[in-house]
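ZP: hey, is the flavin-adenine dinucleotide complex queued? I don't see it on the tracker
AM: it wasn't, my bad. submitting now with these inputs:
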Amino acid sequence: MEENIELYDVIIIGGGTTGLFTAFYCGMRELTTKLIESGSELGGKVTQFLPEKLIYDIGGIPQITGDDLVKQMKDQAAKHEPTIVYNQWVETITKNDDGTFTLASTDGTRHQAKTVILATGNGKFDPAKPALDDRETFEGKSLHYTISNPQQFAGKQVMISSNNRVGLDWALTLESIAAKVYLVNNKASFQHAADEELQRLEESSVIVKLNSDVQALHGENGWLGQVSIKSENGDEQIKADHLLTYNGLKMVPAPFENWGLKTDSGRVAVDQQMNTNVEGIFAAGDATAYPGKTMLIASCYTEGLTAVNSAKKYINPKAPAQVYSTVIYRK
Ligand SMILES: Cc1cc2nc3c(=O)[nH]c(=O)nc-3n(C[C@H](O)[C@H](O)[C@H](O)COP(=O)(O)OP(=O)(O)OC[C@H]3O[C@@H](n4cnc5c(N)ncnc54)[C@H](O)[C@@H]3O)c2cc1C
């Protein structure tokens, strides 16, 4: 164990719905908790794939959008103020001689805990990046793969390159903020777009260029000035301050085998207590494999609380196997 790094009872890897509920439950079991998420946002697949979709199969909630569910889960997780670390991909997990774990992220940061709960899902989903010269020069300044702060585009000329409804949605979002919005699609239609969205696009001021592709970026010091596009009608250069691209997502699997874990079809094999084959490492949610496993949010909750109860027992074998929230919060 390294003296100068704070030792937590539990480190949760992954801030999807499993990680968020697990963080809340750790607090309920009076375990000091750090949650490490590779992305800049919490919510995992629910945030990335179903933010606006209605979810109907969670007990006690007749219907809720993905975004609203994640918002409520963040509020619930915040009850016990866990430490949350963003933008760190956990690369290595080492079990120390004293039984504690040291985790290292790709940026070199180290973390320590008595136990680890894997809530990694299958891994992370990164945006597919366009094959453009000098792409890296513009990334982070004027080339973007998501809209994290719409106001940064206020009064700017924005080009969106996408053949998916995600790009269409971005265009409609930025229409009222940016000075001008171009939507460049290398196909003739938008994948997964609803009729209502296409109607809104038609009625908007967004300039749509179908069967057109971004060819080159022009600018200085990472700031765009012009974008070259190629279409059936030939090449043209368009003034643009920012380019946003969405061409699907690429899965980066979590390195379970490197962490010494037994897997089954790419997921971590667990027993009924959510123990992995490494003592002190537990798993929950879409990361896990066991007979009868279902990939559902409700299952993630049960697995998360079981993993926390197991971690509690691992740290303190005399601790009760379970507790009631009605009793805990009456105190
Ligand atoms: C299209 C679609 C529709 C669905 N509809 C429903 C539905 O109607 N009802 C339902 O119950 N379920 C539904 N699901 C399933 C549900 O979304 C998942 O079961 C649930 O989101 C899994 O949550 P999770 O937290 O286990 O994993 P994820 O949501 O995948 O979260 C894992 C998190 O861990 C992070 N991570 C991974 N590896 C690392 C690492 N090494 N370091 C740091 N961070 C890491 C990732 O960045 C990610 O944020 C649907 C899924 C999809 C794709």
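AM: back. Residues 297-315 form the longest helix (19 residues).
ZP: great, adding it to the tracker
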